[in-house]
Write a structure and sequence with these properties.
The chain is α+β, with helices and mostly antiparallel strands and 360 residues long. The protein folds into 2 domains: 2-197, no CATH class; 200-358, Reverse transcriptase/Diguanylate cyclase domain (Alpha-Beta Plaits, 2-Layer Sandwich), CATH 3.30.70. The chain has helices at residues 2-24, 31-55, 61-98, 103-125, 133-154, 160-197, 208-221, 235-242, 244-265, 286-302, 331-347; strands spanning 199-200, 205-206, 225-232, 268-273, 276-282, 317-324, 353-355. The strands form 2 sheets. Strands 4-5-3-6-7 form a 5-stranded mixed beta sheet, sandwiched between helices. A two-stranded antiparallel ribbon has the order 1-2. A hairpin with a 4-residue loop joins strand 1 and strand 2. The protein is elongated and about 95 Å long. The relative contact order is 0.08.
């Protein structure tokens, strides 16, 4: 019996982790996957419970019930009420189809189906979360234990199986729950590390590494694009007059302004270093990129950047531009042209934007 219990537990653990892992591991999701998640989760957990039902041996009928309860709750944690309903119906109706149930097991299985429907409605009103999952577990566990005991009595089996069922269920639920939480924390740490490697922490904009990856992806697609290198004029003067803390705050405000610009114009924006930012404009000709640079400069000069006492801090920028593939077919040559164009713009303040196409 111990070997069979261990075998059943291993199957339960394996199924749960295999279903949970892609979601815990933050795999790339799109709108379709997000919408279908409750249905996919419900079907997966339902099929897993159905397979575990097939592996159940008759003398320890209670183990199948315990597995179903655990899978049902984890299904709800991951996919919500719809997942609970789908997985519960698959497990409950599947048991009716494949088994010739006597009175006792029939009562237990009918109770499981009723419990599934009740959980569906309850979790729609009172959400099943990590915090509330324990309350739901203990309520369901106590209710099923009572019904299981009655079912075993009708089937003339020893109440000893109810005790084993209780130990198996409590241990399995808490063990798997804690294991999943550990996996989540580890995955979150990894994801945060990856995120910080690609993000400029003060501004929350993509950093040099992320900018390079994005530009390389556009080059691989051979999609025309334009680079705008923005530099804040006389930023050292701002630091000297207001202090470095205010200078950092101005950098964050400029970053916020550029983020809003990027959202409205389907652009990419990142921070290179210090007071330098880069904007990537796709699917427009170089001539239109120059117009955008002029408009962006004008908008920044009109925008109210605030100092420590809520006073306006005037900001002006110089912009260098380069275009793919006109000014380079790789990132190195594009940036070389871009830096040269920006340097020219900074030296000629009467027209503080310059495109690499005009370089001699």
């Amino acid at each position: 019996m111990i070997i069979e219990i261990f075998y059943h537990f291993c199957m339960l653990l394996t199924f749960t982790l295999l279903i949970y892992w892609p979601f815990v591991n933050h795999f790339k999701q799109n709108a379709f996957i997000e919408r279908s998640k409750p249905y996919v989760t419900g079907v997966k957990f339902g099929v897993a419970g159905f397979i575990l039902t097939l592996s159940t041996i008759d003398p320890v009928y209670g183990f199948m019930i315990s597995s179903r309860l655990i899978l049902l709750l984890f299904s709800g944690l991951l996919g919500g009420p719809i997942a609970i309903l789908i997985s519960g119906l698959i497990m409950g109706l599947g048991q009716l189809i494949i088994s010739d149930l006597t009175v006792g097991p029939f009562i237990v299985n009918l109770n499981f189906l009723i419990l599934t429907i009740l959980l569906f409605f309850l979790t729609r009103k009172f959400k099943l979360t990590d915090k509330t999952s324990f309350k739901y577990f203990w309520i369901c566990f106590i209710e099923i234990t009572i019904v299981l005991t009655i079912g075993l009595h009708i089937k003339n089996q020893s109440i000893f199986y109810s005790v084993i069922y209780a130990i198996f269920t409590v241990f399995s639920f808490y063990f798997i729950y804690n294991l999943i939480q550990r996996v989540k924390r580890t995955s979150d740490t990894v994801q945060e590390t990856i995120y910080l490697q690609r993000i400029d922490y003060p501004t929350q904009l993509p950093n040099n590494h992320a900018i390079e990856i994005y530009i390389q992806s556009l080059i691989k697609k051979k999609a025309p694009f334009n680079l705008l290198l923005l530099d804040i004029y006389h930023f050292k003067t701002i630091n000297a007059e207001y202090g470095y803390q205010v200078g950092d705050e101005i950098i964050k405000q400029v970053a916020g302004f550029l983020q809003e610009y990027a959202k409205k114009n389907d652009a990419f924006v990142g921070r290179l270093a210090g007071e330098e930012f880069i904007v990537v404009l796709k699917d427009i000709a170089p001539a239109y990129a120059i117009i955008e640079a002029s408009n962006l400069m004008a908008a920044i000069e009109k925008f109210s950047f605030r100092g420590p006492e809520n006073e306006d801090v005037p900001i002006s920028i110089a912009v260098g531009l380069s275009s793919y593939p006109d000014n380079g077919t790789d990132a190195q040559n594009l940036f070389k042209s871009l830096i040269a164009a920006q340097q020219h713009a900074k030296e000629h303040t009467h027209i503080p934007y310059f495109h690499a196409n005009s370089l001699k």
